[in-house]
Each structure stands twice: as structure tokens, then as C-alpha cells.
Fold this protein.
Amino acid sequence: MPLVAWVTLVIATLIIAAAALGLLRVIGHLMAVRRTLAALLGGVRVVAEKTATVPVVLPSVNASLQPVRDFCETI
């Protein structure tokens, strides 16, 4: 094989290797972002549970206050 063909193969190999290395680095960064987002999502779920809205507990409060309402209607 002529020298030009060998040089072309070496250059093509270097370009492919550089592209593969870049893609591996991107995969590494995306995995780190995924771990961070998973932790963030867990935190958001905890905050959502701790700040639940009033309608979740409102029926039980209304049931507890039913005797007071009945008494007030008699007055």
C-alpha cells in the first residue's frame, strides 16, 4: 500500500478515536446529570408531601366540626 493510504488510515483512526472519546465524555456528563436530577426529584417529592394542600385533610376537619355546626344552627 502506498504511503498516502497509510497516512489516510492513521488520520481517519485519530479522528474516529477523538470522536469516540468525546462521546464517552458526553455519556459521563449525562450520567452525572441523571444522578443529580434523581436526587432533585426526590427532594421535590418530599417538599410536595410536606406542603400538601388543605383539601386533603378538609373532609376530616369538617366531619369533626359537624356537632358544632348542628349546635349553631339551633341557635
Observations:
- The chain has a mean pLDDT of 90.
- Helices lie at 3-50, 58-64, 66-74.
